[in-house]
Amino acid sequence: MKKRLIYSLFFLGTLFFICESCKNNVPNDARDVKNATYKMYDIGGERGYNVTFDVTGKGAEPVAVVINRIRKEINPSDKKDNTYHINVIAETRKIHGYRPQGTSQENGVIYKINYTEYFKPVKFTLK
Q1: Residues 57-73: pLDDT tens digits?
Q2: Which of 23, 34, 46, 117 has the fewest Cβ atoms nearer than 10 Å?
Q3: Contacts 24+ apart (CB under 8 A), 79-86
């Protein structure tokens, strides 16, 4: 009976540790993303996505966005007030040698806090 109790407590402790370690590791100083949408475009040999989202709260600014496994760094010109408008090029014939930066991450936003990048998953809706 005593061994069974010890094994049960060990199992519950291990399960708790696994659940805690798998939690989202984005610190609380990352800003919240609202109204995340994207629209596909195909104009004259260039295909991609127009991504738009709002950020609220205080904290770190987003430095990159990931949409459909394509990562795009955010430029200062992409931000207006608390709204971001990012053009993510997926394929182009206009820019010679251009290759989009692929990633294994799902859709989301990347923050940089103290020289460390944190990924925050975001559900983008198609317009």
Answers
A1: 888 899 999 999 999 99
A2: 23
A3: 82/54, 82/55, 82/56, 83/52, 83/53, 83/54, 84/51, 84/52, 84/53, 84/54, 84/55, 85/50, 85/51, 85/52, 86/50, 86/51, 86/52
